[in-house]
Amino acid sequence: MNGGRKPSPRSANGAERGGAPRGGGALAAAARAVRARAWAPYSRFRVGAAVLAGGRIHRGCNVENASYGLTVCAERNAVAAAVAAGARRVDAVAVASGTAPPTPPCGACLQVLAELGRPETVVLLVGARGARVETTLGALLPRAFGKKYLVEPAE
After folding, report:
1. In whole angstroms, how far apart are CA 28 and each of 33, 132, 150?
2. Could you list the active site residues?
3. Which of 35, 67, 119, 140 is the residue whose CA sits 20 to 30 A from 2?
4. Is pLDDT of 12 > 50?
């Protein structure tokens, strides 16, 4: 059973309320659970991700395509789910893989996370055999491209 705890309320899109980044238990569990739903018939490399945004957990898994370049990573799908639910800021991220050490987000995913996160955003990587790494977005992508680089210099 659940030890007398109330189940977490869910919104229509499957987002879960709560799940503070401290310890990352709920976030890591969400990433692990959604990893099982990944569509990875070509690589068999299943990844799940969960982002905490606005007090809710949003999930995503990788979705491969026979045209490999069209594959979408779990992290980007989780961010898309958060944005679709109205989020405009990512507060924490968990990524679940089947590797030890755990696999970090790819460069494209880090860039998408940087769009809505901050350098101090916690990134929790969980993998096989209890492997776990806690880091930050800034440590993984120290010089992220952002809107500050889009400003035209004055002439």
Report:
1. 9, 10, 34
2. 75
3. 35
4. no
